[in-house]
Write a structure and sequence with these properties.
Layout: H1 3-36, E1 40-42, H2 44-52, E2 56-61, E3 65-70, E4 80-84, H3 91-98, E5 102-104, H4 111-139, H5 170-184, H6 186-191, E6 199-203, H7 210-221, E7 225-229, H8 230-233, H9 240-255, E8 258-263, H10 266-269, H11 272-277, H12 282-297, E9 304-310, H13 318-321, E10 328-331, H14 337-348, H15 359-364, H16 371-387, H17 395-407, H18 417-436, E11 443-447, E12 458-461, H19 472-482, H20 484-493, H21 501-516, H22 549-576, H23 578-591, E13 593-595, H24 596-609
Parallel strand pairs: 1-4, 2-5, 6-9, 6-10, 7-8, 8-9
Antiparallel strand pairs: 2-3, 3-4, 11-12, 11-13
The protein binds adenosine-5'-diphosphate, magnesium ion (MG) and zinc ion.
The site of magnesium ion has 4 residues, from helix 7.
Length: 626
């Protein structure tokens, strides 16, 4: 709910409250008074005077009032007078003396009076509560509607998204065509006795367009789309998730043919056993069980197709993947070069592009980018064009946009002094290691402008082609490049800095996977030592409990060995090309940014001329080597 609406609602209920108060006041003053206190009010002294004068006929003493009437006279509607009672101990004596019949009024009020006395104070509360209740059940959110499915709010929307909005998912699209045909004309399938899968699971990395594809499937078929995320099932109140599932299916059946889409289904569909190990989340289990029951419960070909998406299929409960449930999996992979071109075309459709923009080249230099990344780049580029008040989006905008997406926004304050020097050597180390080592991606750009993501500098490498398999040699080279920055620090300053922490993390991760997942350690052999995916939930260090302490020690040893070798390798390379290191670092300190081409050129120059490149003042800085 947007704040504006909330404010409006606040004003609304304030209004009701005022009305309620007004009503109470009216009751009190206009209705109660005349009804119950219709006597003429006099002072106590008046009463005493009348009493002594012998005018009083009859007295009735109440809790705080004295009611009396005068002989041969009728005032007011009832002829009664009343006086507020004063704490007068002689009142009885006085009455006896005046020989006036008197009585005490019982404290209990009349039934109606008593009831109203009780109910009335609560009336405003009741009124307020009633309006809040009404508001909430209308809004569909809030305490009163917990059990109701959130899908209700969208009422099975027609998405209007077509496959022309989705690029680079050729195979997935083909698989989904069948579902679309079915949703368009269920009778054709039913006549031939063909049973369609009830559930389709879209599997792929984040940002590859799974959600978009599901919407496009509904859009192409022109059927209602019930959208839900897995986490929205698992609410804070127990029992709600299961109720949600039930409610959702009920609604969907009424709207068939339609699509139910459960995004990020791993939130509910996690393997039950592994979840139980962390202490059990019975709420999630109940929800999952209800989902399974519902999927089994409705006959095939009712026209409801359930789609779900996940980027972690391996942690899903096997029961979800059984026939009759999500038995069809559609892989949505990272886009290939032609796919990226398609996606870029889609997202630049409405942009005025400059002549020099080559989407082909952009597609070429963005391997590993997801559809969401590319959409982001296109958007960033147009924002940059707007900022510099350009007429159209240029290639330079795109280049900068890629950098932003990869490295984060540039910070404006430049580094200075010792930090600047150290960062320059660090990045130069990465860049030259990448340049000299085999099987590495070419350097695209090196910068020592701090990024918003917290890096002090960065070396950007651009793969030349899409990578499906990576060889062991290549992994080793990559590790050496990752350690190139640290190696340069050791070589030039004699000590490493904290700046290499992130490099170490990445390099250790690669080494760990080489040993435990890819079987690339000769001592441990081609065996998987890593825990089965999803088992990390068990919270045990190392993940697997069935490994002997010796094996675990050996894994650690092998990882350490791999990292150490990589470190040696980059130290070697940089030692051999120290002139280039000083030169690149010097230029970086001066200009903050160097292109990959310039680095290649500098490296070749230095190699050809030996040590003769003017090292500038940095030439003297060669400290002890590690
Ligand atoms: P996922 O669900 O796989 O994480 P999304 O479908 O949410 O990814 O994608 C996020 C956004 O990225 C989409 O709204 C769209 O703008 C863009 N996008 C992702 N993949 C594609 C694609 N294949 N074609 C066009 N746009 C895409
Ligand atoms: Mg998604
Ligand atoms: Zn680094």
């Amino acid at each position: 709910m947007d704040p504006k609406r909330k404010q409006k609602q606040m004003k609304f209920s304030m209004g009701y409250m005022l009305i309620a108060l007004l009503v109470v006041w009216l009751f009190n003053d206009l209705i109660f008074r005349p009804l119950f206190i219709s006597e003429t009010e006099v002072t106590y002294s008046d009463f005493l005077r009348d009493l002594e004068a012998g005018k009083v006929e009859h007295v009735s003493i109440g809790g705080d009032r004295i009611l009396f009437n005068l002989r041969n006279e009728s005032t007011g509607k009832t002829g009664l007078r009343n006086a507020v009672r004063v704490d007068d101990p002689q009142i009885v004596e006085r009455l006896l003396k005046a020989k006036v019949p008197f009585e005490a009024q019982s404290q209990a009020k009349g039934l109606v009076e008593a009831l109203l006395g009780w109910v009335l104070p609560f009336l405003p509360l009741l009124v307020i509560w009633y309006f809040f209740y009404k508001r909430m059940s209308e809004g569909g959110a809030g305490v009163m509607s917990i059990g109701k499915s959130k899908a209700q709010e969208i009422h099975g929307e027609l998405t209007g998204i077509k496959f022309s909005n989705v690029g680079g998912v050729g195979e997935a699209e083909v698989e989904l065509r069948e579902i679309i045909d079915y949703l368009k004309e269920p009778s054709r399938f039913n006549r031939l006795g063909a049973k369609l899968p009830k559930g389709v699971l879209l599997v792929g990395p984040p940002g590859t367009g799974k959600t978009l594809l599901a919407k496009a499937t509904a859009g192409e078929a022109g059927v209602p789309f019930f959208f839900l995320t897995g986490s929205s099932f698992v609410e804070m109140f127990v029992g709600v998730g299961a109720a949600r599932v039930r409610d959702l299916f009920e609604q969907a059946k009424r709207k068939a043919p339609c699509i139910i889409f459960i995004d990020e289904i791993d939130a509910i569909g996690q393997a039950r056993s592994s979840v139980a190990a962390v202490g059990g989340n019975s709420e999630r289990e109940n929800t999952l069980n209800q989902l399974l029951a519902e999927m089994d419960g409705f006959a095939p070909n009712t026209g409801v197709v359930i789609m779900a998406a996940t980027n972690r299929p391996e942690i899903l409960d096997q029961a979800l993947l059984r026939p009759g449930r999500f038995d069809r999996q559609v892989q949505v992979v990272l886009p290939s070069e032609s796919g990226r071109l398609e996606i870029l075309r889609i997202h630049t459709r409405e942009m005025p592009l400059d002549q020099d923009v080559s989407l082909e080249r952009l597609a070429k230099v963005t391997p590993g980018f997801s559809g969401a990344d590319l959409a982001n780049i296109a958007n960033e580029a147009s924002l940059l064009a707007v900022r510099r008040k350009g007429e159209s989006v240029t290639m330079a905008d795109f280049d900068l946009a890629i950098e932003r997406v990869v490295a984060g926004l540039q910070r404006k304050t430049p580094l200075s002094g010792e930090v600047r020097r150290k960062v320059a050597y660090h990045e130069a180390g990465h860049a030259l290691a990448a340049h000299y080592l085999p099987h590495t991606d070419p350097v695209h750009k090196v910068s020592i402008i701090p990024t918003a993501k917290g890096a002090l500098g960065y070396t950007m490498q651009m793969p030349e082609e899409d990578r499906y398999l990576i060889g062991e040699e290549e992994l080793r080279s990559r590790m050496a490049v990752m350690l190139g920055g640290r190696a340069a620090e050791l070589l030039v300053f004699g000590e490493a800095t904290t700046g290499a922490a992130n490099d170490l993390e990445r390099v250790t991760e690669v080494a760990r996977r080489m040993v435990t997942e890819f079987g690339m350690s000769s001592r441990l052999g081609p065996v998987r030592y890593a825990a089965p995916a999803g088992m990390y939930l068990q919270g045990m260090a190392g993940g697997r409990s069935d490994l002997s302490p010796e094996t675990i020690a050996c894994i650690d040893e092998e990882i350490r060995q791999l990292v150490k070798e990589s470190q040696e390798r980059s130290l070697d390379i940089l030692r051999k090309h120290e002139t280039a290191l000083h030169e690149v670092s010097r230029i970086l300190q001066e200009e903050e940014i160097i292109s990959g081409e310039r680095i290649r050129w500098i490296a070749e120059e230095c190699d050809r001329n030996g040590v003769s490149v003017p090292g500038g003042k940095n030439g003297n800085d060669v400290g002890g080597t590690a």
